[in-house]
Amino acid sequence: MRPPPQVTQSFRRLVNCLPASSPLLLCGDFNMHHPQWEPFLESSPSEVAAEFLELCTDAGLTLVNTPGEITYARGTRERSCIDLTWSKHLTVSDWSASVSPLSDHYMLTFTLHQAFKDTIPSAPPSAPKTFYSWGKCKWDLFIKDFDAQLPAYDYKKQSTGIKAFTRALITSYRQHCPRGMHKDGPRLWDDTLMEAERIATDSKARYLQLPTPDREAEMQRTRSQFFLLLRERLRNTYLRRISKLNPGEPLAWKYISGRKRASLPPPTSLLLGDGQHTYKTARRAANALNRIFFPLHPSHKAVGFSKGIKRQNPSLGIVSSSLFGQQNNNESAATTSLVSSTSLISEPQNNYESAATSTSVSSLSSSSKPQDNNEAATTSGLVAHLHFPLDAPFNRTELLAALRNTPYGKAPGPDEVYSEALRHISSKGLRFPLRCINHSWTTGTIPAEWRRATIVPPLKPGKSPELLESYRPISPTSIVSKVAEKMVLKRLLWVWTPHPHQYAYRSMRTTTMQLAHLIHEVEHNRNHYFQVNLPKKSGIGNQLHYRPHRTLLVLVDFSKAFDSIDHRVLSRLLANIPGVNCRRWLRNFLCGRYAKTRVGNRNSDRRPMLRGVPQGSVLGPYLFSLYVHPLLNLLNSFAGVTADMYADDLSIIVKGQSREDAIPTANMVL
C-alpha cells in the first residue's frame, strides 16, 4: 500500500531542508524492500521503495547497512532488512545487527567518525566539575589551618586582603575536604539482569538459527524470566524513589517533571549562530553571547550620581518615621513599623567589628566608578550625619543570620568560595568578612571582586539551542558578595516594602495567590450588576434590566525585562532611600560592573554592564521590583483597572459593561 502523498512530501522536505555541507545520520524502520539492501529479494521492488532510494541518492546519502544482513525476524520464516542506516559527510564503521530479546527488530550498533573536520568543529575540552564531600570534611583541621593563614585586616589594602582571605579559604577546604560528592547509587542494570539478558538473547538466536518447538519453548521461558526480573527492578526503583519524595519540597516536583525531559545539549556541542553568522569556536560563541547580553549603545552611558538633596517619593512605599530624627542635610529618615526601637541594630561589641568610615557622607560618585575614600573617621563624627539604626555598621549577629540564610549546594562565583566552607569558619575568621562588609557599607565602595561575574548561559525552556538569543545571562556571583547583599537587603526592607500587587520576591506570596486574586476579580465583576433600559418586546415603553460586568484580561510579557533596566531611572528611585550609607551602597552596587561569558572552558572578553540588574544576585530581583513600583501605581490608579505582577509577568484586569466598553480602556492603559 502506497503511503499518503503528504508523507512522501514531508520526508522530501526534511531531507532537502538541511544544508548541503552539514553531516547527517538517518536511521529508522522504513518498512521497504529493495535489492539494494535485500539481495535475496525474489520479487521486483515496489514503486515506493524505488522512489525512496532515488530520493536518498539525490540527497547525497550513503547506505551503511551490510547488504543481506537481517535486521528483523519474526516467527520461523519472516526475515527482512527493513531497518536502514544512511549517512552523509560521516564515516560509519563496525555496523552490525544483533538479536534483541526486547523486540523483533535487531539492535543496530556502529561507530561514527568525523569525515570533514572543517565543517564539524570539535568541542573544546571542558574543565570537569569538582565536587566536594562536605560531610566528610575534617572541619577542626580546616578551621585550624584557615586561622593560621588568615591575613591581618588593613582597610587601605582591602582588595589584597580579600584575595588573601579567598586564597586561604580555598587552600584550607581543598586540603581537608575530600572530593567526589556524588556516590554511586543502586544499579538498575546489575550483573544479575545482564546475565538474564544474555541468556534470553542466546536462546532467541538459537531459535532463529534453527526453529524447533523445543528451542521456541526455551526462548519463551528465558524471555519471560528476563522480563519478570526487569519489571521487578523497575518497580522497586520506582517505589524507592517515590518514598523519598516530600510534597512540601520543590525538589519533589523537579524530580517528577524531569522524568521525561531530555537533558539540554551544552553550547559546546552545537554550532551557535544569530541567523547571519555561525560561530565555530567556543571563544567566538562566548564573545557573541556577551555582545548580546551586554550591548554597547550610544544611549547606554555610565550613570553619574548627583550630590543633590534626596527627593522623597511617597509613591514608592517608603514610610516616613521620626525614629531616626531630623538630619542636618534636611533628609528625613524612614522606617517601617517592624523597627520598634534602635536596639534592633546594636553597636559593635568588639573593636574588630567597628568599620572604617568616610568623612564625607554626601560623596555620591560623580562617575561610573564607585568612590573609594579610605580616609578613616571617628564613629562619633559620623553619627551626626547618619540615620541610625539604618546606617549603623553591621554586627556579628547580622552576619551569622545572613550566613544561615545562604543555602548549601549553590554554585560558587568566580572566586570559587563555597557557602559550605564559609559557614564553617571560626569566630576569628568571621571578623575579616565583617570588616570588609562594614568598610564597603560605610564608604560606599564595592570591592572589585564582588562586581565581577562569569556568565554560564543556560538555555531558555522551549527555545532553539542553536540561536544565541535562546540563552539567559545567569551569572554566579561571589558567595561573600551574596552574604553582603542579604545584609543590605534586610536593612532595605525596613524602609521599603515591595508593591502589594507584586507577588514575586515576597514571603508568603506565590503564583497561586495571584491566580486566586484574578479569579476573585472576575467573579466579583460577574456578581456586580449594572442597570440598562431596553425596549419591551411589545414595543411600548422600556424595561429595566440587570447585566453583569465583563472582565478583560491583558497579559504582558516584557522582553529582557531584567536586562533593560535604565540605571539612571533606577538611581533616581534609589535617591528616595533615607539612609546615606544604604542609598549610596545600593547606587554604587550598579556601577563598575563587568562580566564575561564562558562557553566550555573558553571565556569571552570582559564587557561593562551599563543596563539591567545583575541576574543571579540577591538584590537584583528587589531592585527590579523597585523599578516597576511606579508602573504598578500608575496602572492601578485607573478606574476599573487592576494590575498584578509576578516578577516581569504583568496581568491587567479591565472591568467594563461589555467587551467593546473594556477594549478602549485597555488600549488607553497600554
TrEMBL record:
A matching Pfam family: Exo_endo_phos_2
SUPFAM superfamilies: DNA/RNA polymerases, DNase I-like
Signal peptide (UniProt feature, chain positions): none
Protein name: Reverse transcriptase domain-containing protein
Composition skew (Low complexity), residue ranges: 354-368
Recorded GO MF terms: catalytic activity
Residue ranges of the region described as Disordered: 349-377
Positions of the Reverse transcriptase domain: 439-670
Gene3D superfamilies named in the record: Endonuclease/exonuclease/phosphatase
Organism of derivation: Trypanosoma cruzi
